[in-house]
Amino acid sequence: MSARSAARSDLIGVSASQSATANWKQAWAQNALLFALFFVALMLLHAPLLRLPYFWDEAGYYIPAARDLFLTGSLVPHSTPSNAHPPLVMAWLALAWRIFGYSTLVSRTAMLAISAFSLVGLFRLAKTASNTAIACATAALVALYPVYFTQSSLAQVDLPAAGFTFWGLAAYLTSQKSEDAPWKYTAWFALAALAKETAILAPFALIVWEIKANFFRPRLKQSKWQQFLPPLDGWKSAFYLALSLIPLACWYAYHHAKTGFFLGNPEFFRYNVAATFNPLRIPIALLMRLWQIFGYFGLYLLTFAGMLAMLRSPQRGRGADDDGLERPRIAFWIQAMFLGVLLTYLFFMSVVGGAVLARYMLPVVPLAMLALVSTLWRRVKYWKWVVGAIAIAFVAGLFSNPPYGFSLEDNLAYRDYIVMHAEASRYLALRYPARRVLTAWPASDELSRPWLGYVSRPFPVVRIEDFSAPQISLAAMVRDRFDVALVFSTKYEPSHPLFENWEAWQQVKGKFFGYHRDLTPEDIAKQLGGSLAYHTQRNGQWIAVIAIEREQDAQRIDQPPPIRGQ
Questions:
Q1: Are the C-beta atoms of residues 497 and 403 closer than 8 Å to each other?
Q2: How far apart are the first and last CA of the chain?
Q3: CA–CA separation, 180 vs 203, rounded Å?
């Protein structure tokens, strides 16, 4: 090679390096701007919710685990039985408290930052898979989807795991298209698994897909099925995907060394794994998971619109810049990748998990939404109006409850729960300070742990499992051990519920999903030999304080009158 050719090659190499550096800086500048926009929007929308006390699983596990790490530096919680969840999100909360101080405002702001970061990852994924218009619409819909919206400020791990998964999938697509550094998606998927262990399902699905692609690629040359395979040879990608599983394996080894258990305490393992392997339960859970992906809280409108759109011919052109060509679909190999990840989550989450919670599907519901939005963009002229109508339905779902049972954390019903419990706790603190209180979890933690935000001083608590007839009968036998009872609805109770008179369904829910019927406050008071001192209800939920009547109290004239609210 001549000196001139060598010099020219060096100049080309330097130019390419400078161009790559400039592109990298531009991409991260755009990401920073998007993050700022998403974060400000989320903060404004969540402003009335940022100072609420902690709710349900927040209070029961994640906040205690993060507080243990904050106070003692222990990655394994000791104030609550360890569930073996990886510590990344808890470490993030502990870091936020270390910098800004311990408060619910700091906790919820820290989680909103993760939510905004997750939306940026979803935007990048959607833009890489399709185009900017689809990415904007998908990110907006996901942000307003009730389950994502409420999880955005709750200190739980499913949304962060979903967010890192979006970043991992985006990096994986970029690597497949341009042979970008594979360590990027390795890092993102590793972080997702350290946020929640089930996030390994995404790289696992991709590993299986890559291996199958390598097997079928030689057999499908010159075949139309070739377009369903990833562009690059999969052995290298499968290797880097497998590397993302190592940090989680290290965490489990560490957890076992500290506790003697790999997958959490025995009760956690029994409830979420051992008790779910039932040939009758699995298909029922599968149907519930399908509903959560394609129908839950207005998703059925998006699914129905997408199915109708499939009956139409593709639109031509791109709006004002009409080039006369059909609007392109998401590449078949990308759709195949999404489908593989979705099916892996669908079947695994139908087999494992005692509670069939919608938040467990957050890593894949946005993938389905992305595919459906892309279909609308491709085939419907006024697709923006359709997306806008679905967004309105999502917002309505935040404030209106469905006519069937659902998890309170899936829309703003969780706020009603917190407000009612905070008010009842204040009533207890004013009327019955330091009295022994009969209640069930999570109110037992709310009353005994002031740092959860409900009381300023702890109450001595007598705990029962729930407020079903058998549990109340047991409590009545030991009524000398408590002075007052805090009872509440442990689930949403619609005024006119669907399937309420379907006895077979009630039996299935009771056998496989822990369903029980709470007694009414009046019935509980009667069985415990007490009287209602406080009772309020709101949007299908209720809470009551029952004063236990004793012989020495019979002559008292200063008994507080019942307080009722609506």
A1: yes
A2: 87
A3: 17
Kind and range of the H or E run holding 438: strand 437-440
CB 120 within 8 A of CB 31: yes
Burial of 517 (0-12, 13-18, 19+ CB in 10 A): middle
Q: Which of 8-17, 286-295, 459-468, 485-494 has the lowest mean pLDDT?
A: 8-17
CB atoms within 10 A of CB 56: 20
Determine the Cα–Cα distance for residues 509 and 405; give it in Å rounded to an integer: 11
C-alpha angle with apex 74: 68 to 78, nearest 5 degrees? 55
For 71, how many CA atoms within 13 A lie in the half-sphere containing its CB?
11
Mean pLDDT across the stretch 236-242? 91
Q: What amino acid occupies position 354?
A: G
For residue 249 the two structure tokens come to: 């394996």
Token pair recorded at residue 457: 């001083």
- What band does 314 get if pLDDT is binned at 50, 70 and 90? very high
Within 310-363, residue ranges assigned H as helices are: 332-351
Task: Give yes or no for a contact between 437 and 485, defined as CB atoms under 8 angstroms apart.
Answer: yes
Contacts of 102 (CB under 8 A, 6+ apart): 67, 70, 451
- Cβ of 222: how many Cβ atoms within 10 Å? 5
pLDDT tens, position by position, 78-114: 999 999 999 999 999 999 999 999 999 999 999 999 9
> Tokens 């949403």 label which residue?
492
Provide the whole-model pTM. 0.91
Q: Which one, of 371, 385, 408, 467, lies nearest residue 142 by Cα?
A: 371
What are the chain's domains? 3-400 (no CATH), 410-565 (3.40.50)
